[in-house]
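A quick word before the example. In earlier lectures we treated sequence and structure as two separate objects. From today on, think of them as two lines of the same record. Here is Glycosyltransferase RgtA/B/C/D-like domain-containing protein written that way.
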Amino acid sequence: MTVMLNKQSQNKIAQRIETQDGRTLIYGYLTSFFLWAAGILFSLLACATLFVTIHYPHYTEGVEYKHGTTPLVIIGIAIILAIITTLKATGWLKKIDSKVSALIVSIYVGIAAISWAIMSNSFPDWDSKDLIVAASQLGHDYGDKWAPGAYMERFPFQTPYVVLIKILRYVFGQDQTYLAIELVNSMAAAATAFIVILYTGKIFNNEVANVSALLITLSWPIILYSTFAYGNLPAIPFALAALYFQQIAIEDRVFKYNIYAAFLITISIMLKSTMIVILMAMSIAWGVTAIRDNTKKSLAAIATTLLIYIVCTSGFNACVTHKYHVRLDNGLPKTTWIAMGLQRPQDPDVLNNSGGFNGYVWSWMNNYDPKQANRESLQSIHASIHDFTSNPLYAIRYFSHKEAWIWCDPTYESILNSNWSITADPHGKPMSSRPISPIAHSVYYGKIYKLTMFISDAMQTLTFAGVAFSLIKNRKTNINTIVSAIATTGFFLIYLLWEAKAQYAFPAALLPLPLAAAGCWGLASLIYNKIPAIIWSK
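And the structure line, produced from the sequence above:
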């Protein structure tokens, strides 16, 4: 009897081992799939940004493609890698506590961001102005922004950010609302820098975290974006913090951190709706981890996050609707944005790129009807698909131009957004006509502009190349360490169809900075090991 029981126990153990091996195998295959998909994408982006640079010579979205910047990009990358290698060789990457680096860099970014906001002397226009006006009208005088078929009814996803502006308006006063927004942006930039370094240290080690501190210091668009009254920048630190807590939850197997991540990503999505792509990437990580660990905790994390997201967003909309008597359930259908993202440029003098904003969402001015918008948008999509299939060369040219505009602008429109030479106000003056200081003039037109483009161009290519190198070098990594790269891949795929521009890619390019830091550290290690006798001794 004892022998039979022992054999049964051994069989059960063998079955469990076989099952576990099968789950581990599936986990490995799925992780490799997402890793290689992201690795190929980042390799392509690195090549594209090495040879193509986007800029806006007339301070409109009339794009020019520059192809002669490759030598400067290579020089810039060489300088940055030389700095990292020197810091590694001298031991400073190990000596400096990355938490101290995070504090110092975040203070620098915050001060630089608010200083730029003051020096630029900018003012809101386009969507930024619409959002600020909508906030001023909410609960008081429901003017043009809240009229039937107007801005807020078409774009109800902007409501959480509008409410944030309303709170700032109440606290700081009407005249200081824009300055308060710039202050919030500066705080968000500082928080982003801090969390990037902290997140990098959690995934990798102290040395790589210090490399990320250098990279975020050289990521000037995060500073220049302090003038932009929109949800992009405030949403980023919440998204990064969500990834940070998810990393802790999966690595340390503590469920409460999943709940923290759920609330943080929900806030991020409410501030900028496209951040839902990051939630999708997080769900992939939880789902694949559930296969490996054979546990319901990861699946529960997905369910909990979706529940928190649905309850928070629905509850918020219900509260705003009840309190202010506004309609938030009649927005444009998603097909409208896809239709616009596949249309030909409408105004070559102002917008000469493919798949960008062309005003299509403002069709149906006198008879706004989402159902009619959906029908016409589907017709437009079918027409665009017909154009692509009947002329493959046109399709290749169209999407190559579109993706170049989105991903090859090293500033991600951060300079353009505070110095437009055209205005949406028929009775107003454009930003570029305002009086500016000599420093601001140099940022827009002079030597500082050239320096910014030089550093940003090198940083953009190095970031993409660093991520690709890190992914390919660390092929056996866990899926929770590459969530940011999966999210960026998701953004890329969505923007193939969706209306998009360079500013939309900024969060997607910033998210995988920890992986870029790991890649740069790996490249610096190769350099250090190859030429120790020439510059330094081991």
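Notice the following. Residues 100 and 210 are 9 Å apart (CA to CA). We will return to this example when we discuss secondary structure assignment.
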